[in-house]
Amino acid sequence: MNSAEIVSTRGRELFSYLPAYYESSRIMQSVMGAKGSELDALYQALNEAADQFYVRTATWGLDRWEVELGIPTDRTKPLDQRRAVIESKLRGAGTFTGRLVKNVAEAYDGGTVEVSFQPAEWAFTVQFKDTLGIPPNLADLKAVIEEIKPAHLAVRFEFKYLLIREVDQVMKIHDLEQVLLNKFAGGA
């Protein structure tokens, strides 16, 4: 056995620091392999714990983020949707502006969003430019917008759907079969 046969990355590194006369010692190779495996596990745990400090890499730490921000924890939702709610809540602090609504909505959708105000109607519109159909976590977005907007303003949502002119003579049947019905106006 030599250092190349030590499975652990850090075990091989530890073994490389030893004097040359230990190269043939199976005992030292075994010791460095065992210590290296423990160090590998420690570094993995440290990296995983560090990931929880950032919303975009957090997994089991999302529960803490949600508690801290007063968001109900729903472990049945996909991680990316939970992250979007947290990011939106973090972005949603401050004075109510179109930019604030845009930042919050883009955190949920991941695409471009435009916000326009209709002062005569006491309303504003959130228009999804890149997303086809209704975003999967629209209910969460609506709840956050209701929380940050002034009570006297109404909110409208506009969605983008596939139109006949974008499909007819443009898409092949095989490509069209791959598109979900919710991407079309009136789709389920």
Describe the structure in your own words.
This protein has 188 residues and is an alpha+beta fold. It has eight helices and three strands, in the order αααααββαβαα. It has helices at 9-16, 26-51, 62-69, 79-91, 98-109, 138-148, 164-167, 173-177; strands spanning 113-118, 123-132, 154-160. The chain has a three-stranded mixed β-sheet, covered by helices on one side. A hairpin with a 4-residue loop joins strand 1 (113-118) and strand 2. The longest helix is centred in the N-terminal third of the chain and has 26 residues, at 26-51. The chain is elongated and about 85 Å long. The N and C termini lie far apart (63 Å). The mean pLDDT is 85.
Question: Secondary-structure blueprint of this entry?
Answer:
Elements: H1 9-16, H2 26-51, H3 62-69, H4 79-91, H5 98-109, E1 113-118, E2 123-132, H6 138-148, E3 154-160, H7 164-167, H8 173-177
Parallel strand pairs: 2-3
Antiparallel strand pairs: 1-2
Helix pairs in contact: 1-2, 3-4, 4-5, 5-6
